[in-house]
Structure formats: structure tokens, C-alpha cells
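Chapter review: from sequence to fold.
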Amino acid sequence: MMILGLVRWMQPVHGYDVRRELLSWSADKWANVQPGSIYHALRKLADEGLLRAVTTEQVGARPARTTYEVTPKGEEEFETLLRAQWWQLNERPDPFTAAFSFLPALPREEAAAALRNRANLLRAGIESMRASLESDWVRKSKPVHVGWMFELWAARAEADMAWCERIAERIESGVSYLPAGMERGDGWSGWNDGGPPPTEDTH
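The C-alpha cell string follows.
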């Protein structure tokens, strides 16, 4: 959707300009768009009839540059994809959540330290986003809603950071990972409430 939407926004446009714009948005970090795949994606969209190659130019020994525009079929596809993302809630895979589900496998001290480190990384990212919001790059050269996107990312990061610090404190307090009265279930032989799995006594 990102590449199709940018061509629609900037058309007629070269792949180089699409790539440059996406990189200026840091889209490779949040939109699953890799800079090296943009030219391939443009050709694929053209093969599918969603884009049309308008002109192809070559200057000297430089690679040929193709200018693209969106076809009527591409307009329809873009609007379908756009509205699907606006009206649906799509949860993205989160590797950290997968790791956190095995919290008891880490010593408490390490788990708390890792959460505080994550909070520090998030804090640095928030400061960077806040700086971007105050920069001329956002305020004077981008549409207003780009700044709103930065506000969304900062708000999410702030909530994540606060959660990390709160859970680190609970872990350090020694609170049990099991509800009161609940015992370790069958098949949970590696569970010992924060630390490496116990070793079997062979004596």
C-alpha cells in the first residue's frame, strides 16, 4: 500500500524519488518496506496492472529511470487497501511479547535490568521523535498529519516505557509469578518463579 500510495501522491514519479521519500519517513522501520525492494515492487505493481510505466529515460551510463503513474485498477486497489487499514485493527507480530511470555526463564535481576534497558531505549526514541516534531523538516516541509504520526509513535513508546518501569519494579519486589494459591502445574518442570530451570537430583 505504501508504494502504491506514494506513486499516487507524487505521480508521475521515478522509483528513486519514491525510495527517497520513504526513507525520509523512516518507513523501513514501521511499514515493512525495505529500500532495496522498492524497484522490484514498482515493476511487480506494473506487471499486475496497478501502475503504468509512462517514460523510461537514460542519461549517459546511469541506469535507466522509469516514471510511473497509477492506473484506474491501481486507484481501486489503493482505496481498498487504505480503507481496510483505517477501519480494521490489525495486530502486528511482537517478538518481545513472545519473549516476555517466558519471563520465569530469566533470573529476576536480569529480567528487571532488561526491562529498564528497554525503557531507556524507548526514552531515547521518544526524545528523537519529540525533536523531529519541533524540527523544520516536520513543521515546514511535511503535511501536518506527518507530525500527528510522530505523536502517535511517541504516545505508544511512552506507554511501553512506563509499563517496562512498572513491571521491573514488581519483579524486583519479589512478587510471585503465580496467583495466590496456584501451584506449579504438571508439565511445568522448568518453572521456578524466576531463574534457571532446576536440575534433577540424581542421588
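Two observations follow directly from the output. The beta strands are 13-14, 51-57, 65-70. DSSP finds nine helices and three strands in the chain.
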